[in-house]
Amino acid sequence: MNTQNGNWFEGTKMQERHNAFGVSLVLGNQWGDEGKGKITDVLMQESDVVIRFQGGHNAGHTVTLGDKAFDLHILPSGILSSGKQNIITSGCVLGIDLYKIKLDTIKMTSGELVCDQKLEDIIRKDTHGSIIRVGLVPELESLESGGIDTKKSGLKISGEVIVIGMHNVLLDAFDERSRVEAGLRPIGSTGSGISRAYASEIQRYHFTLNDLIHHPNTFYRSIEALWLGYSHNFPKISTQDLIECAKKEREKIIAYIQNGTIELISNEIEYIQALHTAGHKIVGEGAQAAMISSANSFFGTASNPSLETFCSTTGLSPKHIGNVFLVHKLPPSSVGERPQYLRFEQGEALDTFRKKYKEYGASTGRPRDLWHHPIYESARGAWLNARGIDDESKIVPVYNRVDALEDSLALDNGKIRAALGYQYELQDGLSQKKKHIQVGVYPDTPITQKNLLKNYPERSGQLDLFALSKENVYFVEMKGDFENQVKELLGLYLSALFSGDEEREFLVGTGPKREDLELRVGKPLRTMS
């Protein structure tokens, strides 16, 4: 494995492809929180357009500008750089100006789930007693208070984006509580209204931004139609309360459109294709990640960031894309409900690691769980993320926080271990017989993406994973001195992404700063010695 020093993008094949094809895509290849912003922040300096194409304000990363730090959730990362176009497409869901609510106010009463409080009484406040607001407008206000001229931010939003309303926020919390009361596993929702907003499109309600601006009465009647089914669960929150919230959202976004901060796009595909044809360089910014996408898991986010969804929302094809950056963090971490069999045990060592590496969610502040290195999950993420790619040499792996691997040894008795497979018993619903399921790679099997994905369970089958323990997992231990252990680990990760054995360029994060990235070249590791 060779190391190339200097600017990680300058003079590389990545830069050649970015300039030749005009598009690069940044995607999380684990459970989120991988440090995608570090890649996006550099790419946008080489580009003209940054596109957020999936998700809502439950995502987040921190961007530092000089001595100021800004938390971005729904806004594209290019918002802090002058001269960029920043586009939010219809693949996203848009919270304009919402309140966080107390999720524990929905309780079982006489056999029914009921929130017996007024809306103003369940709105969360911070430690200073101020109402917690989230969404587009609070983010813009935060930038403005930090000295950013948002009128020069080039912010453009598709008129077909679904708008998140307070009705979505309330029902998101209601859904989570309903699952628990019925004996199902919780999703680990942030209570942001994301899943209910996505669902409203399938339910044929009229909740687009175009509806809110141009056909407000239709938008309000959709709230009324939806709330007819839930008013008895929220007896003190009326349809009119929710319509008033929507009216305030409408007033605020219209004000930003009229003062020139936001431009409404009427045909996003035509608009984006014209930018590409004119030679503008584009970055697709994927919030969240493959392993928690709605395409893979019930226990994650409602969005589906991937090459497929980027192409469908922008009208660009895989042939237009020069790079697909698949971002990992070592060891992986995330917030939310996940199968626990790979999780590092809670304790002092984990708390110390969290504090040193700031392992707390940017959107929620919740402490993140950390996980053993799941090589088969990396293969699954790559399959979901890059499905349809025309040339796998366009895949650029990123392994952030390799500098933390030495500290992570304290979490696992001084070892670096990786999971290549697991096994469990499954009760067949037709034959009533038990089936032995073996997922992934086991001894004497070449380590390839195809083998790593052997018998990988579909979404419904992933429920069984919550019953697994570490005893079900096939772990391999890295050998030799620490430097060789890191080399082996990265070789295993490469084996999950590439079918060939030729050398590949990849990036290693050696620290928290944007410039703490190192370009390396290495080969996939097909067998463990």
SSE blueprint:
Blueprint lengths: L1 E3 L8 H9 L1 E6 L7 H8 L5 E4 L8 E5 L2 E5 L12 E4 L4 E3 L2 E2 L7 E3 L2 E3 L4 H4 L10 E2 L1 H10 L9 E4 L3 E3 L1 H16 L12 H9 L6 H6 L1 H12 L11 H20 L3 E4 L2 H10 L4 E4 L21 H8 L8 E7 L3 E2 L13 H9 L12 E2 L2 E2 H11 L9 E6 L4 H4 L8 E11 L6 E7 L8 H4 L20 E5 L4 H16 L6 E6 L7 E6 L7
Parallel strand pairs: 2-15, 2-16, 3-6, 3-15, 6-12, 7-13, 12-14, 16-20, 19-21, 20-24
Antiparallel strand pairs: 1-25, 4-5, 8-11, 9-10, 17-18, 21-22, 21-23, 24-25
Helix pairs in contact: 5-6, 8-9, 13-16
Low-confidence stretches: 1-6
Alpha-carbon Rg, integer: 23 Å
Major sheet summary line: 11 strands, mixed
Integer average pLDDT = 92
CATH second-level architecture of the domain at 328-522: Alpha-Beta Complex
| CATH topology value of the domain at 328-522 | Adenylosuccinate Synthetase, Chain A, domain 3
Strand arrangement within the widest β-sheet reads: 1-25-24-20-16-2-15-3-6-12-14
What's the CATH H-level homologous superfamily of the domain at 328-522?
Answer: Adenylosuccinate Synthetase, subunit A, domain 3
Number of β-strand runs: 25
The portion of residues assigned to helices is 25-40%
Measure the end-to-end span: 17 Å
What spatial form do the alpha-carbon principal axes imply? Answer: globular
Which structural class best describes the helix and strand composition? alpha/beta
Helix count? 16
- The first-level CATH class name of the domain at 328-522: Alpha Beta
Give the DSSP E fraction (strand runs of 2 or more residues): 15-25%
